[in-house]
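retry 2 of 3: previous attempt timed out while embedding zinc ion. Reduced batch size to 1 and resubmitted. Inputs unchanged:
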Amino acid sequence: MAAMDIHQRDDLAFPQSLPEFQQLFPDDAACAAYLGRARWPDGFVCPHCGLIAEPFRIVTRPGVLECRACRRQAGLLVGAVMERSHTPLSVWFWAAYLVASQTPGMSTVQFQRQLGLTRYETAFGILHKLRAGMVRPDQDRIGGRPKEHVEVDETWVGGRTRGEGRGIHHKTLVAAAVEVRHRKPGTAQDKRKDGRYAGRVRLAIAADRGADSLCGFVENAVMPGSLIVTDDWSGYASLRKRGYDHHAIAECGDPEMVEQFMPMIHLVFSNLKTWLNGIHHGVSAKHLQAYLNEFTFRFNRRFYPFNAFRSLLGIAGGVEAPTYADLYSGAWTHPTCSGCLH
Ligand SMILES: [Zn+2]
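retry 2 succeeded.
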């Protein structure tokens, strides 16, 4: 799984503790140097004259590098998630560290307190910009491995509104696919799960429970030819016609059948809902896809927090990030996995 991360570099260390973080990133200059090494692994290359040499640095502007030969400037943060941000680099690094190393992540308010930010909007903006960097533009489809299958299902998320009673008011439909992997014989930890564990996950908001939405999600999220296990809902009936090996489980309402045939997807849904309600106290439909992205990012990197940290900083380049005004006006569309549905 480690191979899917962009940065696998020993010269880009990951702090294992708060004291180590302090040592590695004592100030904005240290953060800038780290970003420089990430961007130019073989040394700074002047984008104007092509000279490869240690640039001049300006203490008060750590994001700006000046070429020794042509004296023109290069922006360290051009295209990065923190470009044009007034927040110091060291705060961005704390943010990436906290987001990467805290298993469940944190709410905007907790985050604001931890970093001592005076404005809620700043904390909100940083977190959403980091979330924008959590989806790789070239994200590949999951599945496609021989002898492994993918569980697919959909569920209603969020939308408890006081005084409207039970039902699905304001709830949003979320489709999910998760790889089911097998531990090597003899290494099974959990006998109940028969050595199975969850691989990568994909989550997207689905328009409805029709075949176009649900099968469309599968086509965007899962490699053709994969064996897919679903319940017997008619929305999945055309999967075989669309090039998948499809196994529909009848009577999937029975908890024992669910546990036996689709254990991973229900674990994912239950973790997702606990996380949305417990950490974020529910989220609006408008921003739900961003939280699905964060959940996916955390889930797929749950064994590798250091890769998450590097990804947050490294993926940042070339990723479009929203402004606060974009987030609130609705002008910003949260990115989804390649071509997922809205
Ligand atoms: Zn130059």
